[in-house]
Specification:
This is Pilus assembly protein PilX. The protein is of the alpha+beta class. The protein has helices at residues 15-59, 75-80, 120-129, 152-158; strands at residues 88-90, 93-95, 101-106, 111-118, 137-140, 146-147, 164-170. Helix 1 crosses helix 3 and helix 3 crosses helix 4 (152-158).
Length: 171
């Protein structure tokens, strides 16, 4: 009878084990990357909700003569009625998700919400999602006012840098 000596592997992992570890590392990297992207997109979703809250709550401030004298700061009134959503509040000032200033100013019968320091991706999303009605006009970076919906292609052109300013004027 023949005696066969089976040679055992001298090492910690087999080739199969290394392959599976690499596959797991790649999968974890992908999951972390997607998570990071989702966190960035959540800022835009939160800010979209904040702007919608500001619009709805500012409309509650309208009296028979409008929103007050033209140029009147409406932020203190919004803070008092807790109508600022989850925006950062510093005294009588509002701050958006990207630490940009947010103003709400009366124009008489209309009001304007202005957000500064909005990154390009946030600018495009907010510009295309917030003002879809015929009562709201949007101005991006001091450009031409657009009433109603803004197409993504127009927003991509207008949101030209990493610190954009968007203003919405509504009734």
């Amino acid at each position: 009878m023949k005696n066969f000596n089976v040679k055992k592997q001298d090492g910690f992992l087999s080739i199969d084990g290394v392959f599976w570890l690499m596959l797991i590392a790649i999968a974890l990297g992908f999951i972390l990357w997607m998570g990071w992207k989702m966190v960035g997109n959540s800022d835009v979703a939160i800010e979209q909700s904040n702007v919608s809250s500001l619009i709805a709550n500012t409309k509650k401030l309208k009296g028979s003569t409008g929103y007050g004298a033209s140029g009147q700061n409406l932020v203190p009134s919004l803070i008092n009625i807790e109508g600022t959503g989850s925006m950062g509040i510093s005294g009588t000032s509002l701050v958006n998700q990207w630490n940009g200033s947010v103003t709400v100013v009366s124009n008489g019968m209309t009001f304007t919400i202005t957000e500064a320091n909005v990154p390009k991706s946030g600018c495009i999303t907010l510009a295309t999602k917030v003002a879809k009605d015929k009562q709201t006009s949007t101005v991006i970076n001091g450009g031409t006012a657009t009433t109603g919906e803004i197409l993504a292609s127009s927003a991509s052109t207008s949101c030209s840098n990493d610190a954009n300013t968007i203003a919405w004027t509504t009734y």
